[in-house]
Design goal:
By secondary structure, the chain is mainly alpha-helical. The N and C termini lie far apart (42 Å).
């Protein structure tokens, strides 16, 4: 590992560790330092800061965003789960991570789909225009109709979309709130959406 990468990793960890140090679930920090050393404590604090600000991130995203090794990330995530500070849920081929006891199952499914490009684009488009058709969604997102159909079926199975008469979001207030609250952790389109929609938020999970 190069000195440059080590420096970027340390900077990343410190940035999220600062968030983690202010989080409500940092009671095991001193124990971390005593049992695993200062570096392990900093890594765990970074995860404590990252997970609440990026809920629903899957393992690979968390590992890459924090510049951790695979084994390193697995070890610290397991320790935090065992301590009851974070929790994870299997989502198809992904394992997604959440702060413990903050989200119900539907929130977790919603966040999982908001972290997928096409479903997130569909959700944001339908929040803007509830009457949008499949063809309009495909054109807006620059994807094929079959791609939209497949994403719609998955959202339907998750209880987030009703396809009985066009496409209708079943939990628009919940999706709106999650999209706005965590917009910075999605993409620029979500941030732009949040800038326009923040005043409409009423749901508070």
């Amino acid at each position: 590992m190069t000195d440059g990468f080590d420096g970027r990793k340390r900077e990343t960890l410190r940035r999220f560790a600062a968030i983690g140090a202010a989080a409500p679930f940092v009671g095991t920090a001193s124990a971390d330092a005593g049992s695993d050393g200062a570096d392990a404590n900093e890594t765990r604090e970074a995860i404590r800061g990252y997970v609440p600000t990026t809920p629903g991130a899957h393992f690979s995203k968390l590992r890459d965003d924090l510049r951790l090794g695979t084994g390193e990330a697995q070890y610290h995530l397991r320790k935090l789960e065992e301590a009851g500070e974070i929790e994870s849920a299997k989502d198809a081929d992904y394992r997604r991570y959440f702060p413990a006891d903050r989200f119900d199952d539907l929130d977790k499914r919603a966040l999982g789909y908001l972290r997928r490009d096409t479903p997130r684009g569909m959700i944001l488009a339908l929040l803007r225009d509830p009457g949008a058709t499949g063809a309009e969604l495909a054109a807006d997102l620059g994807v094929s109709r079959p791609t939209i159909s497949a994403a719609a079926a998955a959202l339907d199975d998750a209880g987030l979309l009703d396809r009985s008469d066009g496409y209708a979001l079943t939990e628009p207030e919940r999706l709106l709130t999650l999209a706005v609250r965590y917009a910075d952790s999605f993409d620029a389109d979500a941030v732009a959406f949040a800038d326009d929609a923040a005043e409409l938020v009423a749901y508070d999970p």
